[in-house]
Design a protein that fits this description.
By secondary structure, the protein is α+β, with helices and mostly antiparallel strands. Helix content is 36%, strand content 22%.
């Protein structure tokens, strides 16, 4: 006899038994075929009370029901959305599919069990693969330990006999791995921001030696004071992202290969480097054999890209600086961009992959971006994204190598590719070092102006000779700033150590500011005022705000470059001499210029810092002080100056802080128009021994930073620079050809 609720309770007990059976047997024997091919449920015919006779055979109670394809599809779709339907959902689904609610409940229960079994089998497969890898790695370690040798006697080493040095190195290696992860996390926060200042605190902890006072003050990042028009939207240095973890093994492999190539390039001779036979030049240099290079280094960066021209040069010199400080300058982005400010217009460290071993830069590896320049708006800068690797070799020689990472930016189009370049540093007695510099780049220089093309094509503009000459001159400057025994024979010579350091620091900031603002950097928005020839005047505005090193307001920069049929030395001597200043300096109003203080900072008498006083012919005008630095080497010369306040200079000469002296540098960059000419035919055209002169002025046109620039101010500056150019041209050519 039918009893209410008996059918449901009986089937619920069957459900519990069925679920228990499935969960016990599924892991040992796969029952997926039952779930996937049958896709049905078992139903039970409910017996009546009269049929419950134990003496009679047990009736067959199970009847299998096969679901239709539509029912399976509907329940599969519902399962994806809701694996655990409630009673209401099951009843609604059963009504739609023509099934009993209990059939729906069974199907969902079986489906969940099936999915759980599949997930567990997948996890077991993954764990088995990981276990196999660990077992294979363990076997490799066992084999390596069984073949280990003692570093002292060469015999087999017993397990556990690890030297103290090896333990220390392993601890240091673990620490460096943690530091790499930490620095990478910091670097990721600064993607698209200037990195040089962000990493200055890291470089200060890399080694005990930070004794170099390069006199940059707070201007390690020279562009930090410029706003507004200073930065362009397509700035490569700010668009390069920090390398990813997948890139880092490729970077390390490329750096190690580049180091091997640099050493061979620096030490090899013929046939890789062929002596140049140039009768028109008195200097001797080597030319890279391109075919031999590709045969010697087939791996490298691959063949030269279409449209790029190869430049390769090598130069060596003895410099008055020990190898430790030289390595420090090269590996610290602020010091590097300061020492080579005439070549490096901007630079930043994007990522530090390794800081080297404790105490020095051996093994240091960092990803950088930099912009290399010639001091003229007529020569486009060369932007590079590269890795820098430092290593100390077994013979004590240090090597620092740069190599481009353009392969990590496949979608970018670069006009410059830097093959393994930089230098080898060998320690010599008495604090000297021998430096062998290699520069090897591939560049698209079709945008270079015609008057600079002979200079650029000769390799003197960006080549190894310019790097070495700049380094030699800066080492002399640094040595002179540290000198203590200064003879007091000349009244103009500053003998106070504190006064010398403060004045040199101020002059270095002036030079740095001039060099970073005179080139064709992508950060500069130059506007050409005329289109009449090579000596077009280009202007640019800058807003100076909240910077104690510059006067507040709107600063108008103007620059022009032109060729002179006069040797560079003649132009340099004319411009640096205070006695001839009234011939070209319009702002001095024809007054007498007198040298008040003098600091020699090199072997050449032209390398010096001077404090000049202009005695105005008009008694109603106050006397003016001018800070001037002149420097020269075989690849170029500079004469840079800036008006300074008398009270502020008295503080500086007494050893006070020079960072608060406001400066607006102007000046001249003098370059040869090509390789040295040995002929006696005279200077007739560009490339025959003349000079390339760049004149650059900075003038405060309004002391209110938010003011608008007037056309009258632009016209005044344009007339000023053109008049100065004509005076210089007339004076030097008249003296050259009387």
């Amino acid at each position: 006899m039918f009893q209410p609720g008996m059918f449901d309770s009986h089937h619920m007990s069957m459900l519990d038994m069925s679920t228990h059976k499935i969960s016990e047997s599924d892991m040992g024997r796969s029952r997926d075929d039952d779930f996937e091919t049958k896709s049905g449920t078992e139903t039970t015919d409910a017996p009546s009370g009269d049929e419950l006779d134990p003496s009679q055979p047990r009736p067959k109670r199970k009847r299998y029901h096969r679901h239709t394809q539509r029912q399976i599809q509907e329940m599969e779709a519902f399962f994806k959305e809701c694996p655990h339907p409630d009673d209401k959902q099951r009843k609604e689904l059963s009504r739609e599919l023509g099934l009993e609610p209990l059939q729906v409940k069974f199907w969902f229960q079986n489906k969940r069990t099936q999915m759980k079994a599949q997930h567990e089998r997948h996890e077991n497969s993954i764990l088995k693969n990981e276990n196999d890898k660990l077992r294979a790695e363990n076997n490799r370690y066992k084999e390596a330990l069984s073949n280990a040798t003692c570093p002292n006697c060469g015999g087999p080493a017993a397990l556990g006999e690890m030297s103290f040095d090896e333990q220390h190195l392993r601890i240091e290696n673990a620490r460096l791995h943690e530091e790499i992860d930490r620095i990478s996390a910091i670097a990721a926060k600064y993607v698209g921001k200037p990195m040089s200042s962000s990493f200055s605190h890291l470089s200060s902890s890399q080694g005990p030696s930070r004794s170099l006072d390069l006199a940059v003050g707070s201007f390690g990042a020279p562009q930090s004071g410029y706003v507004g028009e200073m930065y362009g939207s397509g700035d490569l240095l700010r668009s390069v992202a920090v390398p990813t973890d997948t890139d880092k093994p490729l970077i390390v492999e490329l750096a190690v290969s580049a180091m091997e190539e640099l050493i061979r390039m620096a030490q090899a001779g013929d046939p890789l480097w062929v002596p140049a036979h140039d009768n028109s030049s008195s200097t001797h240099h080597d030319i890279l054999n391109e075919d031999e290079y590709m045969r010697t280094f087939p791996r490298g960066l691959g063949p030269k890209p279409l449209g790029l021209r190869s430049e390769a040069s090598r130069e060596s010199a003895l410099v008055i600086m020990n190898h430790v400080n030289l390595v420090e300058i090269l590996m610290d982005v602020n010091q590097w961009s300061t020492v080579f400010c005439g070549i490096v217009s901007r630079a930043m460290t994007l990522d530090i992959l390794s800081t080297g071993v404790a105490g020095n830069y051996n093994g240091a590896l960092q990803v950088m971006s930099a912009e290399f320049q010639v001091p003229s708006p007529l020569v486009p800068t060369r932007e590079n994204y590269f890795v820098r690797y430092c290593k100390q070799h077994t013979d004590g020689t240090w090597a620092v190598v740069d190599v481009s990472l353009d392969s990590l930016r496949p979608n970018s189009i670069s006009r410059t590719r830097r093959r393994p370049s930089s230098c080898l540093i060998q320690e010599l007695p008495n604090g000297y070092s021998k430096v062998i510099w290699v520069e090897h780049v591939e560049v698209d220089d079709r945008a270079v102006h015609n008057i600079y093309r002979p200079l650029v094509n000769s390799g003197l503009a960006f080549g190894a000779k310019r790097w070495v000459a700049t380094l030699d001159r800066q080492c002399e400057r640094l040595a002179s700033s540290m000198a203590n025994n200064i003879p007091a024979g000349d009244l103009c010579v500053i003998t106070s150590t504190e006064g010398r350091k403060s004045m040199l620091k101020l002059a270095q900031r002036m030079v740095l500011s001039f060099c970073t603002g005179v080139g064709a950097s992508t950060a500069h928005a130059w506007t050409t005022l005329s289109a009449t020839g090579s000596d077009d005047v280009r202007v640019m505005t800058r807003k100076s705000m909240d910077d104690p090193g510059r006067p507040p307001g709107i600063v108008l920069s103007a620059a022009t470059s032109f060729w002179l049929p006069v040797p560079p030395k003649r132009v340099f001597d004319f411009l640096r001499d205070e006695n001839s200043r009234s011939e070209w300096d319009i702002l001095s109003n024809g007054g007498l210029v007198q040298e008040m203080a003098h600091i020699a900072n090199g072997r050449d008498p032209g390398n010096c810092v001077s404090l000049l006083r202009v005695n105005s012919a008009n008694s109603s005008q106050s006397n003016m002080l001018i800070l001037q630095e002149s420097c020269t080497d075989s690849t170029g010369s500079y004469v840079i100056y800036a008006p300074v306040d008398i009270v502020a200079m008295n503080v500086v000469l007494s050893g006070g802080d020079p960072d608060y002296v406001a400066l607006l540098p102007s000046g001249f960059a003098i370059l040869p128009d090509g390789p040295p000419a040995g002929g006696a035919g005279g200077i007739l055209d560009v490339g025959s021994g003349g000079s390339l002169l760049t004149v650059a002025f900075q003038i405060l046109v309004d002391s209110v930073p938010t003011a608008k620039l007037s056309l009258g101010s632009v016209a005044t500056v344009n007339n000023l620079i053109k008049c100065t150019v004509e005076r210089i041209r007339a004076a030097v050519t008249c003296d050259q050809n009387p």
